[in-house]
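[job 4471] stage=fold_predict status=RUNNING
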Amino acid sequence: MTSVAAEAWFAQPALKRIFDLLNADGGEARVVGGAVRNSLMGLDASDIDMATTLLPQEVMKRAEAAGIKAVATGIDHGTVTLIIGGKPFEVTTLRQDVETNGRHAEVAFGTDWKVDAKRRDLTINALYADARGAVIDLVDGLPDIESRTVRFIGEAEKRVAEDYLRVLRFFRFFAWYGSGRPDAGGLRACARARSKLSSLSAERVWSELKKLLSAEDPGRALLWMRQAGVLTEVLPESEKWGIDAIPGLVAAERVFGWAPDPLLRLASIVPPDNERLGEMAKRLRLSKTEASFFTAWAGSPAVPVTIADTAFDRMLYRSGAAGLVTRLKLALAVARQKTENDPSQLPEVARLKRLLARAEAWQKPVLPVSGADVLEAGVPAGPRVRELLQTLEDGWVDGNFNADRATLVARLKSLV
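[job 4471] inference complete, writing structure tokens
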């Protein structure tokens, strides 16, 4: 019997408490989805989601009676979040689809575990574990776990037509859990439905893309997305730019100890063009922080590997470190990949590493004078104040930030 009983997460007293609460008086609850899947694949399991035969109102009632905090996070769709010791457990009533239209489904609550399992998207996501830890497989998901096959439950085209977001989920789960080639039926269904992705909200599309790009190595998934025409559909900026930089970037992350960064990976497959990146940010509804990442990168100059430290410091001051760090990481990944066949590139890698370290440690110096000093020198308020201050700043930067306040004040007096 396949079991997750030996897993540390399964032994949590909070989980046992929820099982005891929901399995009493004719109810039944099971862990479902990610925690079971990850445990069977030897991966970390963090979030614990549960399914139950009880209606959400009954889950709320039992939790409140037991002194457990219950939050109606999605009660219309059957989901209640129980919080014990600060840890959330999502509990969702068994469901069946009444009507689907490619974007969302109308559901009815039920008590049939097989019906609930078959309405889910992928076989590896539809495994349950009961209160003893025994794994229950109603969709032939265990063989797919073993072979690391990402496969739709039942007829792939039907599953996709129920919710077109499943096209992106197919590739996202392949990036995280798949091996070899994607399931042929799933790949074909995704390719045929690619034009329907425009019906999805930008937030849902970007959320899936970001999760996919956060996988340890999203390269194979991106390759198959491109082959299926899906990547161009959701990320047209990548069409002529390509995804060839991804393998080198992933390798560089491992060598240099960089954490996987979905924004950096996205930057590697789109052109550093502010206008196109602005359109992309607007279309995908990136956050202000995410959009500013691309603005800083596209607006920063290329860094010559032979640049002197003083000249690089001036570049950092004028362009900002954030965009230059992105440029240097991408350049370093390309240079490091070249060394695999051409050792003569090693000095360039060393220089780029040194520049990157300098940029990451950069602290912007503060101009020793301000507009108040210009006004005090007798200049009336107005554009002339900013012009003089800019002149002083330009000279201070060109002099490698060496001029002190007294020197700049004297220079200001001579200008006035």
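[job 4471] summary: Residues 1-147 form a domain with the Beta Polymerase; domain 2 fold (CATH 3.30.460.10).
[job 4471] exit 0
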